[in-house]
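User: Hello! I'm new to structural biology and keep hearing that structure can be predicted from sequence alone. Could you demonstrate with Nucleotide-binding universal stress UspA family protein? Please show me the input and the output so I can see what each looks like.

Assistant: Of course. The first part below is the input, the amino acid sequence of Nucleotide-binding universal stress UspA family protein. The second part is the output, the predicted structure written as tokens.
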Amino acid sequence: MAGQIVVGVTGARVSRRAVDWATARAVQWKQSVELVSVVGGAIGTVGEAEVLGAAQTATQQLLDGEAERVRTAGVTVSTRVESGNPVTKLIEASADAALLVIGSDYRGAGTGPARGVHGIRIAAGAKSPVVVVPDRDLGEGSGVVVGIDGSSVSEHAIEFAAAEADRLSEQLIAVSAWTPLHTPRNAMEVYPDLYLANMQSTTEEILALSLAGLSSRYPDLKVVRRAERGHPSQVLSEIAGDARMVVVGTHGRGAIARFLLGSISQEVLSHLPTVTAVVR
């Protein structure tokens, strides 16, 4: 796959994980990498120029060190230091990228707050697919999970996930979740068996239709279909907890997309179960 991978780099420990992830992908798909770091907070006050200059110099030194690690892997790499709003600058950088990779300081349940709003806004507003790398050892996870709802966005997510699974020599775990119709408390304590069976079979049909033709493009790819009852983000997160990657789609577009994702993708991204790709 051609194109450049842009990596948002900060001084946080997770940035090294993000750079490493992007480098490994670039090696396999013969892509180049651009490391971008944004110095934010400048407001033009008197005496600020000297502080800003020192910050930019230190940031460039940080990027130079990371670039050397990428170069050692045989990947063509460039660096760029920007000043301004990190969200805006990384969204702009994604316009000409094949992929934007950022890190998250969220380390899992019980380790602190979920990912901050900046990462969600970047993922929502980016022009390219975004991969968010969590700050933890992912261990021996296997499989690439993709959430499917039968929409056109799902088609893009499936294609991205299938390519990643094929690249990693992993199975593709295609997940579609269904939730029974909500009723007021005690209105229907037990759902009719026929209703539940039809919800399950309809979801299985959506999976089958969404995956049709995939085997012709990826003949060696093993695909596992899972139609599950439950809230979609919870189902995806539970299954993805043992996976190498989860891929979700989003409809986000335009100015409002800088602040909002679809509810499912935002919920998954807010509680990263593993490396998470957001595709539109």
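User: So the tokens describe the shape?

Assistant: Right, they're a compact way of writing down the 3D structure. Reading them back into a model, for example: Residues 253-260 have pLDDT under 50 and may be disordered.
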